[in-house]
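Suppose a colleague, Dr. K., hands you the sequence of a protein chain of 252 amino acids and asks what its three-dimensional shape might be. Before reaching for any lab equipment, you can write down a predicted structure in token form. Begin with the sequence itself:
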Amino acid sequence: MTAKTRRAPRWTRPSWLGIGKLEGSELKWLIIGLGACVLLWVFLSLASEIAEGETQAFDLMILKALRSPEDPSRPLGPVWLEGALLDLTALGGSTVLGLVIFSVVGFLLLQTRYHTALFVATTSITGELVGAVLKQTFNRPRPSIVPHLRDVFTTSFPSGHAMESAIVYLTLGALLMRVTTSRLTKTYCMGMAILLTLLVGISRVYLGVHYPTDVIGGWIIGFVWASICWLAAQHFETRAGIAAERAKSAGT
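The predicted structure, expressed as tokens, is then:
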């Protein structure tokens, strides 16, 4: 007669950690939230370096490199490039972004996706308010080392165009990713959103109206704000009825 062998107790994660209760989607959003916190710390570090003048040499070097050494009013590159970047920079302006948001919100309302429309409008409006507060807080003067190729009227850090384009285009890109099941299409939607955001920021430096660090700061805070709003929407999705609206819209 053989004695029964006892099976060693299986190790489980301590319940107080709460890790075992995390589902895949929850873990994904936790990682995004932690990434947003890291980027916020990077933004604050960058702002501190700017306030101390540590980034000035880098900023001036980039601005000068984009202009003709003989005539700083002439940007490098063919003549058509300046016109193209003037068009691209408008994609991050309040007028164009306002029309984009108005059009998207109108479409969502027609599709009876009211909470999603409210989310898009709230994210863009609050993002613009955050940008205005940050500009007043840091109050950094615009670059004066090269002539501006575009009229500007506000302070420099962070770049409003870079920040607001990141908020709007990344938010819309994320929304489009959720209405498609194709991985390639999802990649395309977010890739185009990132490309538009990058082009707007690059145009601001090329036109001499922003330092490179202004644009980097705008990109960072824009991504952080879009992530915060998106995480909030995910948290209240069931309560707000966005999931039900999506199913209703898909059935019509």
